[in-house]
Amino acid sequence: MALAVDHFSRTYSAASGTFTAVDDLSFAVAGGEIVGLIGPNGAGKTTTLRSIAGILKPTAGVIRIDGHDIVADPIDAKRRLAFMPDEPHLFEYLTVAEHLRLVARLYGVDEFDRRAAALLDELELTGKEGSLPGELSRGMRQKVVIACGLVRHATTLLFDEPLTGLDPIGIRRMRNTIAARAQQGAAILLSSHLLHLVEEVCSRVIIMDRGRKIADGTCEELASRADLAAAGSSLEQIFFRVTGHGA
Amino acid sequence: MIAASLYIVVCSARNRARMRLRRLREPRYLVGAIAGAAYVYFSFFARLRTARVGPRRRSAAATPIVLASAMRAGAAGLVGLALFAVTVAAWVLPFDSGLLAFSDAEIQFLFPAPVSRRALLLHRMIRSQIGLLFGGAIIGIAMPSVSGYARLRTSIAMWLLLSIGKVYFTGISLARATLASRDARARRAAWLPVGVLGAASVVIAAALYQALSSGAPPSMRELLERVAAAIGTGAAGLVLWPFTTMARPIFAVGVGEYLAALAGSALVLAATIAWVLQTDAALEEAAAAAAERRAMHSATQASAYRASRTGLTLAEGGRPEAIFAWKAATQTLRSVDRRNMLRLAAIVIALAAAATSLGRGNGVRALAGSFALAATAFVILMAPQVLRVDMREDLRHLDVLKTWPVRAAAIVRGELVWPGAILTAGAWTALALAEIFAGTSLFSRVRLAWRLSAGAAVAILAPALVFAQLTIHNAAALLFPAWVPLGHQRPRGLDAMGQRLILLGATWLLLIVSVIPGAIAGAIVWFALGPLVGPAAVVPAALVCAAAVAAEVLVATEALGPAYESLDLTAVERPE
Q1: What crossing angle do the helices spanning B27-40 and B494-533 adopt, rounded to 10°?
Q2: pLDDT given at position A23
Q3: What is the residue extent of each domain of chain B?
Q4: Which of A134, B387, B472, B570 could be disulfide-bonded to B302 (CB atoms 3.0-4.6 Å)?
Q5: Which residues contact A190 (CB under 8 A, 6 or more apart)?
Q6: What angle is formed at CA B253 by the lines to CA B249 and CA B259, rounded to 5 degrees?
Q7: pLDDT, mean of residues A195-207
Q8: Predicted ipTM?
Q9: pLDDT category, B299, cuts 50, 70, 90?
């Protein structure tokens, strides 16, 4: 499996006590698969993605990227990973081109110039190479983050709300980009509140609520489950039913 | 509008005080507050008490008072000259007084409100009063005086002086914005103060030249007396009148003289406010531009970076530390206005040239040498605390750095490379100037061999001390991230001041501890080689000491790797 999450838990400590954001979560994503991670606010989606990316340390459990433990073997695991967060976090003093070159240097990207030029064209960033993040719109900055993620040869791609701030043309292009990367063999885990996007793009869906996995399967499999059969066949209907918000 | 401004000021101050009191429930703020309160007590209030009851100490402190009395006649003029120099420098090296730095809430609530831009400026002036009053009070408390009355007088005088500065620097910002205006009338009005200041500079420079060209002053005191005499009369005295008037309340003797001086200072403040308010069109534009900048800043978290060419290219291969050095160098080069740096360099070179040509005696060279020595000490011992282009800045980007496939120890080391390099370069430059000026004046009786050897030893030790301190600061950022302000964030309050003091004290203590093994090894070398090579033995001794500290830095960065790995994002303090 390209991505394997095994009994993963994450707890936050605060002055008011401890809070378990993710509790005993297990799932796997194979190469070529696009898995949607959905759930209401506070379900633990972002904590899961950030832990897989190596930003947060798991309180319990194991996360492996191509067999490399993100805690025990972080460098080899991170080399195979690309994380595209919902908030475009860039160095405000580096230009678009310098961000890409920095990523290329960090991850050892071969044929960087060709790949970067193709990517800038694909994401409609051509002409913005010399711009600083402060000179770009939010959508453009989001595209830069995605370009930094895609310029390297990652086997596992993590997208956290990838369409935030994009215009309709950008949204369509991004859907195509994600699908194309999966066809090339990448394992993709995508978190989004846009259920129609998840339904359209993802081959499988994981629904989380209050830190726990409450459903896992294709839309058809979920719709055919006995306890969800009455909800309806759309992902939105299943989501409301399974999270207890159904009418 | 004034009532609304006062309402905002009172509510903000009350709520801020409440919030700071509430956070004292957290130990780190409580410990910081205790340390801050102890510092304030022992620095200011304890001195008040001992000054009242300690006649012996008073006599011990008599020497500077006698000196001050001797200089009293010209003191206001000398301070006025310094204020004039600052005023000229403000045109050459413009900086923002912050008066037009409207907050997000002010932009949202006050800009669409039916109030004039002048009213907005008055609002900002009212809002700045708490800070100015506090600044004046601190200076009054800190002054070496024996009576509370004298402290009160100084506080009021300083408050007026700071208020004038705040408004005046805003006026400069506004006038600068209009220098290239298409409106000829506005352009003329903006150039007028430049022309006046230029003419005034010529008058004062001529007076100073006349005073110093007749023969080199043998001492610093003689130098100051000559300068005071030259600028106190004639055209120079007339030109410096507004500046001397601002300084006069600080040195006034007796109630009558003080009140008269205060009235003069208030007159200068009124004239400055009138000058700023008459530039209404520029004020409109500047306020709007400041609001726009602020809005842009909030939206992008960007500061004043420009997408300029740096001439630096990231190599395709090599050690990962180089990536961090390149990143920090790019950040520095993009945040520095090169034109201002060139102007600053020109000023330093001009002053150095003046000191060299005028100071055949000891006065001017000794002054320049003292400044250079102070600058060397500051760069080596204090600047690592101030320059934060390392992990302290990069904690903001921790969620990006954590995804990078780079060894943690290499990240820690990489963060130190650039700030260490530029601080070392700064220390060497200041040290070279100190060797030239202080070496030929303050230490002219010391043998040349000793002066050169000591200078070389300091030059060798400087990078070791700088890197050691940077390592300690970065270790603190990784081990106690909640105590370290992020980026340019400067938390205020007694507790935050206490936290900074504790960190500074701990840094210096650790620095001393880390230097001890190297110092012992260096001392052995010194005692072994001293009888053979004389003063030059201090150079290999410094080399041995620096090598020991460098080895400790390397070991420490390796040891900090696990701390970086286990650093939790949630432990990093976000801005208030």
Answers
A1: 70
A2: 94
A3: 1-50, 63-295, 319-571
A4: A134
A5: A34, A35, A36, A37, A158, A159, A162, A178, A198, A201, A202
A6: 50
A7: 91
A8: 0.81
A9: very low
Closest of B269, B275, B265 to residue B76, by C-alpha: B265
Which residue has tokens 């402190």?
Answer: B61
> How far does A46 lie from chain B, in Å, by closest CA?
12
Report helix, strand or coil for B114. coil
8 Å CB contact between A32 and A157 = no
For testing the chain A interface, which of B336, B402, B418, B566 should be mutated: the one with the most A CBs within 10 Å? Answer: B402
Share above pLDDT 70 across residues of chain B, in percent, rounded to a whole number: 82
| In the predicted structure, residue B104 carries a pLDDT above the cut 80 | no
CA distance A210 to A175: 28
Q: pLDDT grade, residue B461 (50/70/90)?
A: very high
CB contacts of B315 in chain A (<8 Å) are 105
Burial of A16 (0-12, 13-18, 19+ CB in 10 A): exposed
In this prediction, residue B356 carries a pLDDT of 66
A contacts of B320 (beta carbons < 8 Å):
106
Mean pLDDT of chain B: 81
**Ramachandran quadrant class, A164 (left: phi over 0; alpha: psi -120 to 50; beta: rest):** beta
pLDDT at B339 over 90: no
The answer to whether the Cβ–Cβ distance between B570 and A12 falls below 8 Å is yes
Q: Tell me which residue of B162, B196, B167, B115 sits closest to B274, measured CA to CA.
A: B167
User: What is the reported pTM?
Assistant: 0.74
CA distances from B191 to B86, B178, B196, B205 (A): 18, 9, 9, 21
Q: How many beta-carbon pairs under 8 angstroms link A with B?
A: 85
Give the phi and the psi of residue B245 in degrees, each rounded to 5: -60, -40
* Cα-based distances in Å from B32 to A16, B322, B485, B575, B576: 21, 36, 14, 17, 16
Question: CA A189, CA A159: separation in Å to the nearest integer?
Answer: 6
A4 forms beta bridges with A28, A64
For B181, the token pair is: 């205006």
Backbone angles phi, psi at A157, to 5 degrees: -115, 130
Contacts of B301 in chain A (CB under 8 A): 92
- For residue B287, is pLDDT > 70? no
- Report which DSSP code applies to A40: S
CA dihedral B481, B484, B486, B490 (to 10 degrees): 160
Q: Which of these ranges, A17-26, A210-219, B94-103, has the smallest mean pLDDT?
A: B94-103
